[in-house]
């Protein structure tokens, strides 16, 4: 599937999802605030998907040494941090009118925030290292350490919150969701996923272009070793 | 290989003994942190007694990074290359640095712990368990810190990058330690939190061994 | 703020950030391409 097809498809799907999200009737319990879920849930889903792809890219890069996998990992992390930030922001905006406060120490919120900081750390590391190979190896190592630790972070946070019963809150993913609202939600998830794919491909292309630029010798630069010439035999010039 | 590890540990500890960074700089910094907190949040002694243990663990987590990132632990490229030429396995180097850092972190924990007890007067029921919790926490932080130090070596003075790498990954260590001490205070079971700390340590050991070679090449 | 106000706030941030990110990718790619062409 060409890059162009994915991008046009993503753009079209986002427009449709936007329109559907505004057109469907309000939720019986949450009213119009439910519409925030049509951007919050897809963002959160992509935050986790992008993280997973970064982890997979890191492992495969270390196994194969093919830089394309490292570029996938890096691209997915950058797009992922955008969606994680959006998931947090939309979560806060949904929470204020519903709970009355911007933040509660809900396990899911704390986990998403922790993941956001892991992303930021990973991207900061990538920015700090020069040279595609060095950057790829170090990022992949951090990616694997993070991948091994994230499940433990998940369980420890969930256990921690389990000790303090949270107040009865409206669950954002109410299983008894009406068909038209469910359609709006799924449409949004589909559209956002296409957008993620298109963005990652673009970001990977940018990374490839940047790498060939920085790692290629400049025209005014001599290749190292050019100063050494072949010895001349018999005094004549070759 | 065990011999290499032991020799390297001894040399690292000797370097630190000469430099004295942990004793003269990092522990005092941790102590100052514990001192200024009540200046900011008030001196309600009941509140301080309740939050004292939590603040102790936060200081250990955040300032412990400085211990693993200490000057005497930095190994530059020529030194690493020489060790490799001498036939020292990178995994052995990782093990030695980690064990040395664990011991120094234990010293840090004990010193800062004493100051916490003095300033915050926390409830000390079940303190015997600390003999298990303190080493598990020190080992975990030492491993993450050593990995972070390798990842950021030779990057030219990005001072907060290593702490940023450590902090989110170390959340389960903080939770395990804090919930365990809280559990001791109220008399609840703490086995699950000790288990969290142990699992973290095992996973980090695995990660450290698996990634020693790629790190060596970068 | 009314419910629709909160919805508008959320949607503005989401679509604003996404459009901004796409724009930044386009600008960065253009900059790298012109730098490569210059050499």
Category from helices, strands and their pairing of chain B: mainly alpha
Number of helical regions of chain B: 9
Based on DSSP secondary structure assignment, what is the total number of beta strands of chain C?
0
> Biggest sheet of chain C, open or closed, and with what strands and sense?
none
**For this entry, what is the oligomeric state of its chains?**
heterotrimer
Short description:
The complex is a heterotrimer of chains A (238), B (218) and C (39). Chain A has 238 residues and is mainly alpha-helical.
Description:
In chain A, helix 2 (37-64) runs antiparallel to helix 3, helix 2 (37-64) runs parallel beside helix 6 (179-215) and helix 3 packs antiparallel against helix 6 (179-215). Chain A has helices at 3-23, 37-64, 67-99, 107-128, 132-162, 179-215. Chain A is mainly α and 238 residues long. Helices cover 72% and strands 0% of the residues of chain A. Chain A has one domain (3-23, 34-214). The model of chain A is unreliable at 165-170 (pLDDT under 50). Chain B has 218 residues and is mainly α. Chain B has one domain (2-217). Chain B has 9 helices and no strands. Chain C has one domain (1-39). Chain C contains 1 helix and no strands. The longest helix of chain C is centred in the middle third of the chain and has 36 residues, at 3-38. Chains in contact: A-B, A-C. Chains A and B meet through helix 4 and helix 5 of A and helix 6, helix 7, helix 8 and helix 9 of B.
List descriptors.
heterotrimer, A: 238 residues, mainly alpha, 6 helices, 72% helix, elongated, B: mainly alpha, 0% strand
What does the secondary structure layout of this molecule look like, with pairings?
The complex is a heterotrimer of chains A (238), B (218) and C (39).
Chain A: H1 3-23, H2 37-64, H3 67-99, H4 107-128, H5 132-162, H6 179-215
Helix pairs in contact in A: 1-6, 2-3, 2-5, 2-6, 3-4, 3-5, 3-6, 4-5
Chain B: H1 2-19, H2 21-41, H3 45-68, H4 77-85, H5 90-120, H6 130-151, H7 161-169, H8 171-186, H9 191-217
Helix pairs in contact in B: 1-5, 2-3, 2-5, 3-5, 3-6, 3-7, 3-8, 5-6, 5-9, 6-7, 6-8, 6-9, 8-9
Chain C: H1 3-38
